[in-house]
Amino acid sequence: MRYIEQQTVVKRMNGRLIANAIFKYIFLAATLLALLALVILLYRIVTQGAGYLSIDFLTNFASRFPDQAGIKAALVGSLWLMTVVAPTSIILGVGSAIYLEEYAKQNHITSFIRMNISNLAGVPSVVFGLLGLTIFVRAMALGNSILAAGFTMSLLILPVIIVASQEAIRAVPGELRDASYGMGATKWQTILKIILPAAIPGILTGSILALSRAIGETAPLIVIGVPVIIQFLPEGVLDTFTALPMQIYDWSSRPQQEFQAVAAAGIIVLMAVLLFMNSIAVIIRNKFDKRY
Amino acid sequence: MRPSVQEMIAQSRGKRNKKVIEKIIPIILFLIASVSVLTSIGIVLTLIFETITFFTRVPFFDFITGTTWLPFSNNEAQFGIWPLIIGTLKITVIAIIVAVPIGISAAIYLSEYASENVRRVVKPVLEVLAGVPTIVYGFFALTFVTPVLQAVFPEIKIFNAISPGIVVGIMIIPMIASLSEDAMSSVPKSIREGALAMGSTKFEVAWKITMPAALSGIVASVVLAVSRAIGETMIVSLAAGSTPRFDGDFTGSIQTMTAYIVQVSKGDAGYGTTIYYSIYAVGFTLFLFTMAMNILAGYVSKRFREEY
């Protein structure tokens, strides 16, 4: 019978320890490399665009001349887009989540819906653009309006909101439900007055993150046919409009060097909006982070 | 005097509308939940119908075997999908070469070496990378990565496959890192401690214990990342150019499936023209590719999951 020989182990240990140390730093370097990419990205954009950032930039319409170009129409357009996307996607998403978590029985239909949601999350956004173009722009004749784009974006982020809301609802402890039923409340009363209030922080956090994805999405808007050069502000949801990422796309695909700086300035505005939304999500999560 | 609880219960039981609400709400919620299913059906039907129209004008066989994509030609437009698929694969291959080593290394570092505090800071920051809009990545590829590459390799053109490929890779790093880290963290501590107690180094534990145990999750994360790279649109339409080509050249302008859809949408292809229908045929092909990847990822993570 052979035992482990201590001498052999000791002899080989050095090499193994060195390998361990080397790989530790390789793995650390990979992590830092990824973070470095983020830093370079943000640094580049800020240094490129900061010079063009001014009050005029925020209050001017798009222009052929780089130094007069502004982002007003796109900024207002993105806000308009959100007024359609936020209610549509949150109502659909939270409603679906409540159904799946509280009402759905474990049967084939339910598991089909679940599977479908996870598959839908993997469909490229440009394909959602084709759906929006066919259904909302052509079949429902909404044109390239805020409503058509808003519906398309809502469907795009729907899976994210459903999953986030499901998790938030699932995290509400069963004792709360039982207590509510024990007091004689009906199912809907329990959902409306006990479960939803307890789940709202999680739902809101997930929804805001999903909405910030919708603000940055470009491809569906291009496919729908959202124009770029717009010299007026929309007055209703049936008007045409342009949005921040569309404007940035247009500027960055122009050949003149100056427009690259304008595009970078536009990106700073977009990133500022996203940062603002993300910090709201973080604040909500921290403020209402209840432990049961 | 206030009514007793018993009376209140009896009273509310008599209310008809409450019962109605309790019956209607589940139906309404079911209808809402079916919107996601309707969306999928809508996507599939839309793509199928418009693609069929496309195939009444362009032979199916030419589409799936053709190696020339020349939709805008005045004399004789040619619709052979392969150049677009090759373009998409070029981007995907480079993205995977960039993202898989870095992503998995970062996942190993975070799950095996990093302290709890480091992980709690680094993981969300990495996820910020995933939240950056792709248009911003596209701009970064065009105005930073391409010039840097050109400075090192002068033969690289302004529009090429390498620069957007690298940037798509950067974009999917957090996805691989985060999902793989989840898979590795869920490997029970006791197994690691057993190996460490036998005298293994941390690297040996990571390489021989944690990685094999979490392999299904790691593979699934990579497959999902491939799917994301295939469907990525803005980075490639800004930085990869618009030259569909059927060759192995990475240094010149190419075109991907997504970039073609954007190019046509931008240029106002008249409704009803063959070019208009071609974006659905390309979209359908793209949809099939990503769907296959998503199903594969789901299958891998379910079929090969180690249960503890």
Automatic annotation (TrEMBL), chain A:
Signal peptide residues on this chain, from the entry's feature table = none
What membrane topology term does the record carry?
Multi-pass membrane protein
Transmembrane segments annotated in the record for this chain:
21-46, 79-100, 120-140, 146-169, 190-211, 261-284
According to the lineage, what is the superkingdom?
A: Bacteria
Q: Keyword annotations for this protein?
A: Cell membrane, Membrane, Transmembrane, Transmembrane helix, Transport
Q: Where in the cell is it found?
A: Cell membrane
Looking at the record, the residues that make up the ABC transmembrane type-1 domain are: 75-280
Entry's InterPro entries? MetI-like (IPR000515), MetI-like_sf (IPR035906), Phosphate_PstA (IPR005672)
Keyword match Protein biosynthesis:
no
CDD domains found in the cross-reference section: TM_PBP2 (cd06261)
Kindly report the protein's main subcellular placement as a broad class.
Answer: membrane
Query: Gene3D superfamilies, from UniProt?
Result: MetI-like
The record's comment on protein family reads: Belongs to the binding-protein-dependent transport system permease family. CysTW subfamily.
Q: What is this protein called?
A: Phosphate transport system permease protein PstA
UniProtKB/TrEMBL annotation, chain B:
The annotated topology with respect to the bilayer is: Multi-pass membrane protein
The ABC transmembrane type-1 domain is annotated at: 85-297
The subcellular localization recorded is: Cell membrane; Membrane
Q: Does the keyword Ubl conjugation apply?
A: no
Q: Could you confirm whether the keyword Membrane appears in this record?
A: yes
Any single Pfam family the record assigns to this protein: BPD_transp_1
Alphabetical keyword list: Cell membrane, Membrane, Phosphate transport, Transmembrane, Transmembrane helix, Transport
Q: Which domain of life is it from?
A: Bacteria
Q: Transmembrane residues, as ranges?
A: 20-49, 79-104, 125-149, 161-184, 205-226, 275-300
PROSITE patterns per UniProt: ABC_TM1 (PS50928)
Tell me the PANTHER family matching this sequence: PHOSPHATE TRANSPORT SYSTEM PERMEASE, PHOSPHATE TRANSPORT SYSTEM PERMEASE PROTEIN
**What does the function comment of this entry state?**
Part of the binding-protein-dependent transport system for phosphate; probably responsible for the translocation of the substrate across the membrane.
In the record, the note on similarity to other proteins reads: Belongs to the binding-protein-dependent transport system permease family. CysTW subfamily.
According to UniProt, the name of this protein is: Phosphate transport system permease protein
